[in-house]
Amino acid sequence: MWQYSINPLSAEAKKIVKRYSSIPDLPDAIFELSKKRILSKKLDTATLGSVEDTLSLHLIFLSAGLLFTPYSVEVRFVKEMVYKSTRKKLENIESELGATRLLRQLADKFNITEGIYDRETETLHLGEEVFDKKEIFAESQSPDKIRGGRGTVDMQKSRGVLDGIRDRKYGVPWKTFLPLLKHKEMRLTDWYIKGGLVLVSLLDLIELYSRLVAVEVFEYISKIYTRSKGVEIDERIKEIASALTEASKERFRAASFASGKAKELSFENFPPCISTVMNGVTSGSRNYGISVLLTSFLSYARIAPPRVDNPKISDFIKDEKILTEEIVPLIYQAAERCSPPLFDDQPQEKMNISYHLGLGLTKDIRLENSGASKWYFPSNCEKIRREAPGLCRPDDICRKIKNPLHYYFIKST
Ligand code: SF4
Asked: Cα dist. 236→8, 37, 82, 166, 302 in Å?
């Protein structure tokens, strides 16, 4: 019962979702519950552990994955809500049912070793390892050791015997935290590690577990996003998406996406095919590589619009300079690096670039022309391999994605 109410991706929760996997057959009440939970900005308002609780949560994940990029404020909002509600539920278990019950709850993700405190030597024995007083109470450790965390360490250094929620007396294998390290939610250098075990308190465990669940939900939503292009979307799912937009805009009012400014491009996160085109390509791949692939990739990566039908650049950015000073110069520079330079013998390709940005067949890069043609979405990897096989030099991340834009979003988050 508790298990799937705390971790929405637990095996039990997934079993429920599988049992009710036909979206059109789900009653309206579940969709309403999803919206209510979003608009109340709490994912924990429903009865803990109920089937409705699980289903309404998964509808939120589905809606976020189907209609928004992993970069969006909507997905950030869901991730934050999952983190907060998980944390709150775990804190309630600790305060109402005690530490032993909490440890049992956490055991589905953490292999926890409880240490034995030696009062005489004031040391903690964790398996083969011995931690001294300084390591256990560690007043010098940063309270912000979990990135973005909320002061989890507040150690009571004067306490002689370990028994409180803040005392570090547990060990967890450091590899458990790989997803948090990957998403830069935690830095190993901030923790005491011996014999492969990270020394943590009960409060740290609550924090780390909550972040782990939130990161897993984020990856789950990203997976839905990468696999769902072109699927038909139920109207009720779209309504949940609208609720997400409304609630997240309020929450992230000052955030760059909400004000129509997407993130600056991170070149180090480009997939191999795009890096290759950026460095200039030879005549066989020039037109496709520059005018189609690079143009669509850079514009979508920079602007990161939510998934809507027939998007127009002017719907998402208000500052023309994003086009004229950021996106288009990069495309023109890559065209210049081609062999031979693309515009030397095909100056008309500048119009083709505008065309693929949705600005129509013109050399003028003007935001007001948005909608004069279709704004092209980057081709899938399969098509890239067909059109320009030399551009695809897959690496490890490529195995997880079907579109270069998804590669970028995954590596950037
Ligand atoms: S697999 Fe896709 S993203 Fe990776 S290099 Fe090939 S085309 Fe690019």
From this structure: 21, 15, 21, 44, 30
